[in-house]
């Protein structure tokens, strides 16, 4: 697993879409209904959200002083246009980045100090109703299995049954457009194998410009993951080729030209043993699937990990347990392993974790018996969507004058919504389809919790606490 997406009940576009798709296990039950039922039975209530020196920290207070509380409120109600390409560290003082709030916020959403403060503002406004429960991950929802099995496979099956053809191993490297003063029309797709697809009058093109999982590389138990870049990236190169043709096609540079500020590393551990999961259940007070993200605040890598409800994969044997983790600062040396996270093998990443939790002696026999595997993953663009940017750097979903094409995903502009979410992906698709075709449907509105007094009051009390 490269990661897992957190959900919440007010993903209106996402849950509406999944209400039509039969679930992986039962064709009579939609993915939406399966997910809502699953989250009624396994409610997020993390009791070990932040750790230091292997012990649980008190997160009953966010630890914000008056000055930081004022800065938080000012940002919430500032206009996005006024923020330009400012960074979060341009808005808050340095002490802010040592608070419980920042440790919880940054690791939950993967923000960095140098991330866009405009994106942080969107998150604060969009998820203000969750602020009270963030220390225990209250309101966070997950799918029954990993999202590939719970969402992607059922959706692909649904589409194939309706005649959709998926042509994999086919890379589009450029697109020709007929550009006039008032119209923009896609005309030809150029493929890597030198073939072309000439677009007819009834052909439409939906372009995912940029990708946070591009150029991913997997290491092994005894080999580090390799950091790749633009050279191995199809979607970023495609966007760069498109962007030079019209100002309305956005600017990929701010999002992809600073890999050292965008990358982080994750890992998946597979254990043929219950020892670690039993330890964490007793230590945290959470059965698997109810605890969520655990962050080691004294980790040089700022390492976090998640134990999902087991089994996390439909075909996972009863005697196999898995968990996932990641580090926001992969270029720093470990506290215990004398290497940067980027240089570490899967084995070394786990050793660093065991030492932080003070369970290295407990886990050594399991490691020596070969009952553990760990796959490190390098993701050079995973935080690219949070990079400081100006209005217009992300193209509109349907650029002005576009007749037969649209942009989709995290690097197309959907006003008010938050980029690092599955909701954003579905919302941009709704904007595209409802804008290009006569459907008699309107894009579902973003959940407007910032204008709900009860949410504001609860959030204000939490920030002051």
UniProtKB/TrEMBL annotation:
GO biological process: fatty acid metabolic process
Organism superkingdom: Bacteria
Pfam families: MCRA (PF06100)
Entries under Gene3D superfamilies matching the protein: FAD/NAD(P)-binding domain (3.50.50.60)
Record-linked InterPro entries: FAD/NAD-bd_sf (IPR036188), Oleate_hydratase (IPR010354)
GO molecular function: FAD binding; oleate hydratase activity
Entry-linked SUPFAM superfamilies: FAD/NAD(P)-binding domain
Protein name: Oleate hydratase
Source species: Williamwhitmania taraxaci
């Amino acid at each position: 697993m490269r990661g897992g997406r957190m959900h919440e009940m007010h993903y209106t576009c996402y849950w509406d879409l999944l209400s039509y798709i039969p679930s992986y296990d039962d064709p009579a039950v939609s993915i939406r209904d399966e997910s809502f039922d699953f989250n009624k039975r396994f409610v997020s209530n993390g009791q070990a959200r932040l750790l230091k020196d292997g012990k649980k920290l008190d997160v009953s207070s966010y630890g914000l002083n008056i000055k930081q509380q004022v800065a938080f409120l000012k940002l919430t109600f500032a206009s996005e246009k006024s923020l330009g390409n400012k960074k979060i560290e341009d808005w808050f003082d340095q002490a802010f980045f040592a608070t419980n709030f920042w440790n919880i916020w940054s690791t939950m959403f993967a923000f960095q100090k140098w991330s866009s403060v405009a994106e942080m503002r969107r998150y604060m406004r969009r998820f203000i109703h969750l602020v009270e429960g963030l220390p225990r991950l209250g309101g966070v929802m997950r799918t029954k299995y990993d999202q590939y099995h719970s969402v992607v496979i059922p959706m692909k099956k649904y589409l194939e049954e309706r005649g959709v053809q998926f042509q994999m191993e086919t890379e589009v490297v450029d697109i020709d457009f007929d550009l006039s003063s008032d119209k923009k029309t896609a005309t030809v797709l150029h493929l890597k194998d030198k073939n072309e697809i000439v677009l007819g009058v009834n052909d439409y093109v939906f372009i995912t410009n940029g990708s946070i999982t591009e150029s991913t590389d997997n290491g092994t138990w005894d080999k580090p993951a390799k950091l790749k870049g633009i050279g191995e990236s199809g979607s970023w190169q495609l966007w760069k080729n498109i962007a030079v043709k019209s100002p309305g096609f956005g600017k990929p540079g701010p999002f992809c030209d600073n890999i050292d500020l965008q990358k982080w590393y994750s890992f998946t551990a597979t254990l043929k043993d219950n020892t670690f999961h039993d330890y964490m259940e007793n230590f945290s007070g959470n059965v698997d699937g109810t605890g969520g993200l655990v962050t080691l605040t004294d980790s040089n890598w700022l390492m976090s990990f998640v134990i999902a409800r087991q089994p996390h994969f439909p075909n996972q044997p009863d005697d196999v347990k898995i968990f996932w983790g990641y580090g926001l600062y992969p270029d720093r040396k470990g506290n215990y392993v004398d290497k940067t996270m980027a240089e570490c093998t899967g084995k070394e990443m786990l050793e660093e974790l065991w030492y932080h939790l003070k369970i290295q002696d407990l886990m050594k026999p399991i490691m020596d018996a070969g009952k553990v595997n760990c796959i490190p993953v390098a993701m050079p663009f995973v935080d690219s969507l949070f990079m400081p940017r100006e209005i217009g750097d992300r193209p509109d979903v349907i650029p002005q004058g576009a007749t037969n094409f649209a942009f989709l995903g995290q690097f197309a502009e959907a006003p008010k919504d938050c980029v690092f979410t599955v909701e954003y992906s579905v919302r941009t698709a709704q904007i595209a389809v409802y804008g290009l075709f006569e459907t008699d449907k309107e894009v579902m509105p973003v959940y407007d919790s910032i204008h709900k007094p009860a949410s504001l009051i609860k959030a204000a009390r939490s920030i002051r606490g």
